[in-house]
Amino acid sequence: MISAMQAVFVGRHHELVELRAGLEDAATSRGRFFLVVGEAGIGKTRLVEELAREAAERGHLVVWGRCWEGEGAPPYWPWIQVIRACLPRVADAAGAPYLAQLVPELGGLQAPAPPVPPQSEHARFYLFDAVATFLRSRPDHTPLVLVFDDLQWADTPSLLLLQFLVHELRDTAMLVVATYRAMEARQNPHVAEILGALARDGRHLPLSGFGEGEVAAFIEGKTGRSASAALVQAVHRETEGNPFFVDEVVHLLAAEGALERRDETVAPRLPVPQGVREAIRRRLAPLPAPCRDALTFASVVGREFGLGALQRACGLAADALLEVLRPALGREILVPDPRTAGRYRFAHALIRETIYEELGAAERARLHGRIGEVLETLHEMDPTPHLATLAHHFLEAVPAAGAEKAIAYSTRAARHAEASLAYEDAAVLFERALDVLAEGRPADARQRCELLLARGGAQWKAGDGPAARETFRQAADLARRIGDAPLLARSALGFAGEGSRLLWVRSGVIDQPRIELLEEALHRLGDGDPGLRARLLARLAINLYWDPQPARVLALSEEALALARQLGDPGQLAAALRARLIALWRPETAEARLAIADEIVTLGQRTGNRELSLLGHRFRIVGFLEFGDVVAADREIEAWAQIAGELRQPLYLTDLAMWRATRAIMDGRFADGEEQAKRAVELGQREHDAQPIMRYEIQTFVLHFHQGRLDQHLRRSQPRADVHSGGARRVARPKHGSSCPRWRRRAFRCPTTGPGWSRWACSPPSPRS
Predict the structure, then answer these.
(1) Dist. CA 412–CA 255, nearest whole Å
(2) Among 212, 265, 526, 723, which residue carries the largest CB count within 10 Å?
């Protein structure tokens, strides 16, 4: 009987040997990472289940994070599952204020407040670091096995968090195993790129189909009796050894009595279906119509579903629904979720996919609308954790249910994703809302402009600068067309980089489109909104730094700072102070810049913004070095070291190593200087903004100059894509000329070369170039 068949595991000997070695390494605090890859049904999950069983028998903690097929999952969904599963084993949830962004129930735990604002430009690092620290903080030090299943469906933020954790595995008692389908992953460029990087960071285990011997062992293990060689050959030939397909065929052959025959001529007459999905359809065919209808609703919900939602969708009481589903449970089409009572899942994703793909477009839209309404009612008291799911169903239901709820929920889900630091998810959801708005309410230009501004902000935070600029350009065109000056001002600010991690402009570059849009926005705004005006003035001053008329830059920054002081908003004051400092970035203004740096430090301390304080300390270090006050500079470097050590942000730790390398070179401690420069390169590899190779090249250039090895250095150096063209020669021949009296005393720092370059010679960068 089919219901008597047992789950079996055959083959995969070499893969299990490698994974078991990973378990041994994790048990001795040598963290490992494996990627198991193969086509649908090849046995990726089954292999990892076998490993998980062995790990649990050894006393390891095994935690699964399953990715949701298609859209509709909350941001970081696999990680939410992992954190919730680990909570009972962690007495003190380190980083709880950050983790509460993902798992709200952590919000009530006693924990120190975050050291930086939640919307800091580095906020995602602190969230990722909090997750890694949380997973390492188990008091019993039990080895942890993390399994992430079906990464081809993971959202980009979840993959980035996994990438972060993998880099933190050294000296941890963790084994991380992830599975994915290669073909589906290649269809999403972002997913493919990150999975490619992950494959380089761990061990790649590709799976192929069973051989004939493994097919024979599988049939015997599944049915309790051996199969003839002809039948084994036929099954292997028709299924190409795909384990899931083999399993489906064995179910069908058992149901049709073909396994009872022992003659060797049976192979040509085997009722083997053409393909996996056909096998699934034949397995579903005997189910009663009410059961198939319920499975159809369940396939629209997703791979996993709760009885509460399904019974409302089907209009059945709980006991009646269970009776309807009983045949599907008996045939192992559905299985109970062992983690949560009242929840069920399709035994394999291919089963759910097959049922869902049978639906026509109109029926699919109608059922999504029905499920959306059910979930809306079910979660009306607290819809926030379910916004992504609601958005998904109402977006799919647009042809049947209209645009209103699709726009509303996708916008709310996007804002929730952005607040959860899932910027890529937010950008996609804003785009979906824009698409629906264009079809459903094309005349609503103001709402379209607001959505464009929101999407542009999310794109900047996700690091997609070109896409962000294009989005803000579209918003500006729309704002100009409807004559809305504040919307045009916000568009111009976004186009010019506000909301990004950029502060400086490229060395020697005057970005005319940015400047023209900022000037237009200022003209149209007039004195109507002082806050927006201050931001426009500050951003324009930054973008005009390389303008041949520095007096205008000084005037713009001065007006921006005066307005910001009148308004009293700390954020606007910080932005204006930065702009003013950039405008003053000239040799003769060192004293004025040092005063602004003092004010920035004070403002950061007053508002509890440590990153802002670090910006002030950075400019203090530069200012004191300009004055030759190395004692004060050393004091500031130690203040930097304390804050950077607390924040643990790679960029700030890289900067610290660079500062220390600078001071060692200035003191003639060349060996120490080279060691610190190398440490900066190592730390900088974890932060794409750090540009560690460029900084190392310039730092060692200065070192070799003092050692009398400059000619040797220049012969050795080759042009690099990530180093400023002609950078070494610009340091060797600053605008002051080699006779500048303070040139050597300041370890090659030359303020007149401008903020986009001068910082590299002896010091880590000020805000981004």
Answers:
(1) 49
(2) 723
**Residue whose structure tokens are 């909090």:** 130
State the Cα angle at 503 between 592 and 674, rounded to 5°: 85
pLDDT of residue 256: 67
CA gap 158, 198 in Å, rounded: 13
Kind of pairing between the strands at 343-346 and 174-180: unpaired
Structure tokens at 504: 């400086």
State how beta strands 174-180 and 304-306 pair. unpaired
Per DSSP, the three-state class of 336 is strand
- For residue 339, what are the CA distances in angstroms to 50, 186, 342? 18, 31, 10
CA distance 301 to 314: 12
Q: What is the 3-state secondary structure (H, E, C) of 432-471?
A: HHHHHHHHHCCCCHHHHHHHHHHHHHHHHHCCCHHHHHHH
**Contact of 40 with 350, CB cutoff 8 Å:** yes
CA distance 596 to 554: 14
Question: Side chain identity at 101, as an amino acid letter?
Answer: Q
Taking the C-alpha atoms of residue 528 and residue 536, their distance in angstroms, rounded to an integer, is 13
Per-range mean pLDDT, top range of 6-10, 285-289, 718-722: 285-289
Are 656 and 642 in contact by the 8 Å Cβ rule? The answer is no
Give 335's strand partners. 345
Radius of gyration, CA atoms only, the chain: 31
Distance, in Å, from the CA atom of 251 to the CA atom of 260, rounded to the nearest integer, reads 13
Three-state DSSP class for residue 381: coil
Average pLDDT over residues 19-41: 93
pLDDT at 736 exceeding the cut of 50:
no
633-657 per-position pLDDT tens digit = 999 999 999 998 888 888 888 889 9
pLDDT category, 225, cuts 50, 70, 90? confident
Tell me: pLDDT of 47 over 90. Answer: yes
The whole-number pLDDT of residue 711 equals 72
What is the spatial distance between Cα 197 and Cα 615, in angstroms, rounded to a whole number? 32
Joined tokens for residue 449 = 């402009």
Q: What is the pLDDT of residue 92?
A: 60
Tokens linked to 712: 């040797």
Burial of 184 (0-12, 13-18, 19+ CB in 10 A): middle
Residue 426 structure tokens: 């937010």
State how far the Cα of 559 lies from the Cα of 551, in Å rounded to an integer: 12
User: Helices marked H in 117-171 — which ranges?
Assistant: 123-136, 156-167
| Residue 726 buriedness (CB in 10 A; 0-12 / 13-18 / 19+) | exposed
What pLDDT, on the 0 to 100 scale, is given for residue 204? 92
Q: Are strands 144-149 and 334-336 parallel, antiparallel or unpaired?
A: unpaired
Extract the tokens encoding 742. Answer: 């303070």
Dig out the tokens for 485 from the structure: 């000056």
Query: Which tokens belong to 179?
Result: 């599975």
Q: Name, in order, each residue with C-beta under 8 angstroms of 614's C-beta and a sequence gap of 6 or more.
A: 604, 640, 643, 644, 647, 652
195 Ramachandran zone, left/alpha/beta (phi>0; psi -120 to 50): alpha
Q: How far apart are CA 731 and CA 665, in angstroms?
A: 16
**3-state secondary structure at position 486:** helix
Token pair in block for residue 481: 């067309």
Alpha-helix runs per DSSP H in 511-669: 512-525, 530-543, 550-567, 570-583, 590-607, 610-626, 630-647, 650-666
The torsion of the CA quartet 171, 175, 181, 184, rounded to 10 degrees, works out to -50
pLDDT tens for 587-623 read 889 999 999 999 999 999 999 888 889 999 999 999 9
